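From the shared-data thread, chain only:
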Amino acid sequence: MAKAVIDNKNILNNSNLIISDYRFERKFYITELSKYNVESIVKMNPAFFSEIYYQRWVNNIYFDTLNFNNYYDNTEGVTNRIKIRVRWYGDLFGFIEKPTLELKIKNGLVNKKISIPVKPFHLNQDTSLTDILNCINEVKESLTIDFRSLYPSLLNRYSRKYYQSGDGHYRITIDSDLHFYEINKQNNSFLNKSVDKNSVILELKYDQQYDARAARIASKFPFRNTKSSKYVNGVHKVRLMAF
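Structure, as tokens:
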């Protein structure tokens, strides 16, 4: 199992490393409403959410062990677990100029994220396991993870919109147009994919000190708080395609 061990001495010497505070994330997996309906509901919430930033494509390559330990940690509800991915924005294929390695660490009900820029790389049908792993080799000095036990396990992308409450304490992301691609150790054609245009994933994110009001905000949504992982859903869909 891949566990993240942080070397505090090297963190102090690495100004590129960003570690977020622990925060809550309430997820809503929605299939009965369009993304436009969901956006309208968010805008009518009494917390006065308004759109910030701009809509963009989020792309990820996830890493896991050969036995998919991180995947099973999630499906089995392991309290403390990790999700490892390389993330970038914009075009899915071609020259990836600003990728970021992200370690999303779950500790009970809260999450934090460790982010560090990594080497640019190309993603196309000639991309191999070695090409992808090379982009993260330099971070070993800051994150003592045995990347030799990890392999690219899933490629996915989705369209994301961003909202923030009137007081600035709560943020919402709305993800739609989910694409999942099988990723192999050798060359990839990326033709084996699953596209989900019907599901919408809403996430309500906030720091721990604002948890009390979050329940009131969430109660105004006409959909239920559910457990949802785009990584788990993607692995499941890609495995089904293999049969």
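The CA atoms of residues 17 and 116 lie 5 Å apart.
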